Known about the structure:
Gyrase A, domain 2, 4-stranded antiparallel β-sheet
Amino acid sequence: MDLELPSSIQEKLDGFKSEKDKKAFVEAYHKALITPGEAVGTIAAQSIGEPGTQMTLRTFHYAGVVELSVPLGLPRLIEIIDAKRSPKNSITAIYLDEEHNKTKKDADEIAQQLREVLMKDVSEVHVRLSKNQVVVKTNDVDAVEFLKSIEGVSKWGDEFVIECETPSEVQKIKNRLSKKRLRGIKDIRRAFIRKSGGEEYMIYAEGSNLKQIMAIPGVDKIRTTTNDIFQIAETLGVEAARNAIIEEAMKVLADQNLEVDVRHIMLLADRMTATGEIQAVGRQGISGSKGSVLARAAFEETEKHILNAALYGEIDPLAGVAENIIIGQPIPVGTGTVELAVKPELFAGKGEGKKEKKKKKDEEKREVDLDD
Length: 372
C-alpha cells in the first residue's frame, strides 16, 4: 500500500500533466524517503568530511573573470561551514535588466556608478605640520564640492587648505579626508564587464554590498547574487541564505569533481539556519548551543560547560547520541529509537486460550480432590 503523500508533495504532483511524469515523481519521492531512526547527521558529516580530505588547499582560482580571484577548495568550504561574517574575497555577480544588458556602453554606465571612489583616489592629501595645515590638491568635481562644504577651508589655485589647532588634529583630519567616499558604493573596489552566455552583458564586482547594488536602476534584482552569505541573509532573508549555503557548497565540491548528494548539504544548511540566523558548525554556533550539557562538554571547553551546569543547576535530558554514549546507554538511533514493538494480530485470541486452559486445569484438580 502506498504511503499517504504530504500536502506539499501532493501539490507538486498535481502540477504534472502526464501520468508518466506523476509516476516517476512518486517513485523518486519514495526512493528519497529515509527510514525512521536513521542517523542522517552522522551520514551527512561523513559524506561531506570524507571528500573534504581530497580537496585542494589552493585558496584562489581565476574563474570566469581573469582579474578576480575566486576563493575555492577546502578553505572556501571551511569558510561556509564556519559561517565567516566576511569572506576572504567577496565577489558580486550583477545581472542587468533587458534595457541595459544589450550594449557595453549601458553596462559601463552602471559599472561607473558601482565603483567606490575615495578622496585619496582623485586627490593629493599632504600636511604642513609647521603651520598646522592640511592641503588637498584636486580637480575632481565631487571632491571640490565636498571640500567647499568644509567650514574654515580656503582655496589657493587648485589647492584647498584646512587650518587646524594642533598637530594631532592635522593627522586626524588627513586620515578622515583620505577615507572619505565621494561616489560609488561602499566596499565595491573594482567592477568588470563581461558577456554572459554570449548574449547579454553583466558586471562582476570585487567586493559586496548587495542592498545598495540592488537599489541602482538597471540592475536585475532577481538574478544578482554574491558569495557573501551574511549579506544575502540581511538583504533577502534566512531562506535565501539557506539556498546560498547549498549553492556555494555544491559549487565548491563540483569544481573539485567531487560528487556529494545534495541532501547532505541541504541538511547542513537547514541546521545552520534553523534558528532564523546563520550559525557556524562549532562551539560558537550549533555545537555550543546544544541542549545537552554532556554533548557540549564532549565537543570543546569541557570544564567550562560542566562548571556552568553545576552553578546553574542544569539538567541533561539525555536525548542525543553523544551524551548516551558517555553514560553507556543505548543511543536513540536505529533500533535504539524503539522501546517496544508489538503486533497485536499475533496475540489475538491467545490470551483467551490461556484462560480456558487454566480454568480446565483448575476443574480437573477440583475433581481429583473430590474423588479423594
